[in-house]
Amino acid sequence: MTTVTYEDLHRRMAGAIEAEREAALDLLGPSAPAVRAVVAELLGRRTFAYPLSVLPLIVHAVETGSLEPALPLAVVHELWWTSACCLDDLADSQGAYRAGGLDESAALLATVIAGTPLPLLAVQSDRVPEPVRGALSAEIVWCWIPATEGQLRDLQGRAAGATCASVVQAYLGKSGAPFSMITAMAAQLAGAGHTRVELWREFGDVFGVLWQLFNDQEDILSGREEDLRNGTVTYLFACALEDAAPGDRERILALHADARRSAGARADLAGLLLAPAVLSRYEKAVDEFRDRAHRVLDELGGHGGYLPALRDLVDRSSRVLLAPRG
Q1: Is the per-residue pLDDT at 2 higher than 80?
Q2: What is the separation of C-alpha 307 from the centre of its chain, rounded to a whole number of angstroms?
Q3: Backbone CA torsion sign across 20, 24, 25, 29
């Protein structure tokens, strides 16, 4: 039997998600055409390699067997991540950011609307049952606090004191918080009780860490090396630092500092990060988070037609694609 993947479900629902996105933009009202235009431009320019906007639809379907009622949450998910990624780009751009026809100032204003007011309008609309509107609105507001905390830890980049535990804590904020927000929202919309909602929140936390670990790999594999250029303290970096002998530790920290401006330092640091022992520790951590995600799904159970899509998503996010050097 062939498993229906999350990509299959996204292809099935892509048209409906697009229509829901347009309906959400219409909530901005006729008196704000400029606001609608900049938010639409931001959404049009931000493309995601992986269609994770379908995640709340799948969670809702695991609970109820139905995808369509969670369409507003798919748009909330898109809006949140578009806003967060744009803010991240603005922080890294040093005044040179552009998104299509948007300059830095217009992009910043668009992210403000896309990140909170528009998602709140979406969950307060008549597309969402009135009894859950307050709870869903609260999830959006509260998500920004741990997510911002995690992002600030990232920006502060305290490499010398980095540990695997401290990096996971940052990941739980900047990636775990938005995923746990959207999975908890989908469960609440589906009418799940408190215990199941909290299990979905736990799944979102764990999946968020897994997704960040996967994203860290893609940064290296793509050749962008934005984490090295920006001095980001990643889990892979923490693995290398924790296991290093004192002399090697100082070299790793020096290369990390120099990597912001030196291609040679980036190449040398990448070589150390991809040492077999470091990658082995990294892979072990990925396996542990994957197994934990599957344990939560085991406990949740649910509609057999949709649960395999979540398991497939977990497994795809748990691949270690980096190859050791040396």
Answers
A1: no
A2: 20
A3: positive
What are 322's two structure tokens? 């980096």
What's the CA dihedral at 260, 264, 268, 273 to 10 degrees? 40
Q: 102 - beta bridge partners?
A: 99
Q: Which two tokens stand for residue 12?
A: 């099935």
The vertex-316 CA angle with 43 and 79, nearest 5°, equals 15
Name, in order, each residue with C-beta under 8 angstroms of 314's C-beta and a sequence gap of 6 or more.
Answer: 207, 210, 290, 293, 294, 297
Angle between helix axes 117-124 and 130-156 (nearest 10 degrees) is 160
Cβ proximity of 122 and 135 under 8 Å: no
Q: What angle do CA 151, 196, 8 make, to 5 degrees?
A: 70
Contacts of 30 (CB under 8 A, 6+ apart): none
Q: What is the dihedral of CA 42, 43, 49, 52, to 10 degrees?
A: 140
- Which structure tokens are listed for 77? 């998910």
C-alpha closest to that of 52 among 98, 90, 85 = 85
Q: Which residue has the tokens 């980095």?
A: 162
pLDDT at position 185 is: 98
Residue 269: CB partners within 8 Å, gap ≥ 6?
A: 228, 252, 255, 256, 259
Q: Indicate the DSSP class of residue 246.
A: H
Q: What digits encode the pLDDT tens for the residues 53-109?
A: 999 999 999 999 999 999 999 999 999 999 998 888 887 665 556 666 788 888 899
Q: How far apart are CA 172 and CA 87, in angstroms?
A: 18
Could you give the domains of the chain? 6-317 (1.10.600.10)
